């Protein structure tokens, strides 16, 4: 049995090597992104482990079939970028890692909320751009405990975020298309999405990208939000209309945004050894705004998460190659 792991970063290598040694399985790794050309490298391997936010296309799965590869094990949660019917049609079984560390993403959302609530971007801008180091009225912030936090999506990450926001004393209202039947009473579900938009000081998005939430956050929604509100998106870029967000931030429809995921992320994002300069005009625009914290889809990135992503994804691959049903099968 032998596996190939794509999109590897240097911080993953010790975990991959240890897993291979502990399980007596040959595991080759490469920093290459998986695509139509690079899939040829997988010829002769029993399965692929991968982590990327660009599309896994129908053509790619046709190549899997041609190369006799039946198993793709994702090291991440989201499956919105996969042509699942094409995978099925080409006999490819897929697993993900649904809970490698929900707390990692939840903490990141809280960190972004604190950064923006305490105006750290304005402090950085004064020092980095003007080389000035003194008090400013622009730095007056707000306590999280004074704020109402609207959490959209009360799954693994949303629930972890609620716990952290509650710990800081926030009032939490939540929305989920499929609400939990039993909650621990630490939060209440809002009557509607409109209530979330209108009453929240901070909105934190924790749902998957689906066809029905494409550009859910658009001009009409920003108009409904408080002009003091902060939007945090650590979920998927397609949920927020970037042009409308930039307009809302510049016109004062909302006060700030924490953007870990932006629509149309490029293949370069996954290349941890890249020295290419970013050329996305929206990223460059937001990078200069003191009321925005924009990060390269890195909310997941903690040592706990990386270890679990490797161990669980390679474990899923081993289970599948052994002809057993893994618990993380994606249907
Ligand atoms: P989860 O499946 O545990 O929870 C998602 C919740 O969203 C569910 O309760 C579901 O009912 C709800 N939901 C689905 N569609 C909805 C809709 N249209 N409106 C409202 N609620 C809806 O998933 P999770 O582990 O909490 O992850 C959530 C998302 O976070 C993932 O799908 C992924 O896109 C993103 N994510 C980002 C990072 C990062 O590094 N930035 C890391 C991991 C996951
Ligand atoms: C996920 O796990 O879904 C993420 O968004 C993390 C990313 C490295 C793909």
From TrEMBL:
Key words of the record: NAD, Oxidoreductase
**EC id:** 1.1.1.28
Please provide, alphabetically and separated by semicolons, the GO molecular function terms listed in this UniProt record.
D-lactate dehydrogenase (NAD+) activity; NAD binding
| D-isomer specific 2-hydroxyacid dehydrogenase NAD-binding domain: residues covered | 110-299
According to the entry, every stretch annotated as the D-isomer specific 2-hydroxyacid dehydrogenase catalytic domain falls at 5-330
Instruction: Report the domain of life of the source organism.
Output: Bacteria
Classification via InterPro entries: D-isomer_2_OHA_DH_cat_dom (IPR006139), D-isomer_DH_CS (IPR029753), D-isomer_DH_CS1 (IPR029752), D-isomer_DH_NAD-bd (IPR006140), D-LDH-like (IPR058205), NAD(P)-bd_dom_sf (IPR036291)
Q: Return the broad EC class.
A: oxidoreductase
Family under the similarity heading: Belongs to the D-isomer specific 2-hydroxyacid dehydrogenase family.
Q: What is this protein called?
A: D-lactate dehydrogenase
